[in-house]
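Attaching the record inline, Q. Sequence:
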Amino acid sequence: MLTRFILPRLGWAVVTILLATILVFGAMQALPGDAATQILGQNATPDAVATLRRQLGLDQSPVERFVTWLGNAVTGNFGTSLVSGQPVGPEVGRALLNTSILAGITIVVGFSLALALGLVAGLFRDRWLDSLISTVALVGMSIPEFIVATLLVLAFSIAIPIFPAVVVAGENASLADLGPAMTLPALSLMFVASAYIIRMMRTSVIDVMETEYVHTARLKGISTSRLVFRHVVPSAILPTLNVVAMNIAWLIGGVVVVESIFNYPGMGSLMIRSVQSRDLPTILLITVVGAMTFVICNLLADLAATLLNPRLRYPRNSK
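Structure, as predicted:
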C-alpha cells in the first residue's frame, strides 16, 4: 500500500523540482545584466565584460548552460559560485542550517502552541476565549510579516532593549552568535505562520464536534478528556496537516522578508544576495532545496493523514 502511495508522488516530485528550476532559470535570464556586469560594475569596458563572460561560461546559450547544469546536478555537482568561485554546496548548506535552526524553534514552539490554541478555540466556540484567540489569529493573518518584525524591533530592541535588532556576526556566525538574535525573528515567524494553523485547527475541531459519533460518545457518558484526545484531536488534526506542511516548507525554504529585516544569515538572505549578483548556480541550488522541502513536507503530511485515517488506508472497506 505504501509503495503504491509513495512512488507516484516521487515521480511528481521530480517533475515539480525540474519545473521549478526551469522557471527560475528562465526568470533569471529575463533580468537585465548578468554576473559579469555585476562583478565588474557599470564602468567596465565591453572587452573586459566579454572576457569575464567567457571565463564564467556565460557566452554559451541559455539552453546549453541549463542542460550542462542539469547534467552535473544529477550527479550531485551543483557548480561553483560565479561570484566567489567556490562550490555552492557549502555556502547553501550553512544558510540552510541557520534557517533550519530558526524554523525548528518556530515549529516546536509556535506550531505546538497554535494547535493547542486552535483546539481550545474550537472547544469553546462562540465564547470569549474563542473570540480572543480568533481575533489574534485574524490579526496575524492580516498583518504582513515585515510589519510584525518592525513592531517587534521597535518594542524589544529600541523601546525596551532586550534583544538585538540584527545579526552582526555575518554569514559565518556560530550558533552562540546567533542565539540571542534568534528571538525576534522566531517570534515574527510564529505570529504570522501560527495564525493559519489556529484557524484551520479551530474549524476542524468544530466540524468534528458536530459529527454523529461525537454526539453518540457523549450520550454513552465518555469523559470529556477522553473524548477530546481519543476522538476529536486525531480527526481534527488531519485537515490541519497540510497547512502545517505548507508553513514548514515556507520556513525552511527561506523566509526572505524576516531574514532580511534582521540580517539573519539564512536561505532568504542568501537568495537576495545571489539574485542581486546574478549568481545563477547558487540560486538554482536554493530553488532545488526549496522545491524538495515543499515536496517532502507535503508527502509526509499526506502519508500521516493516510496512516491516521483508516478510510484512506483501506479505501475498499470504507465503501
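Residues 88-123 form the longest helix (36 residues). The mean pLDDT is 82.

More tomorrow.
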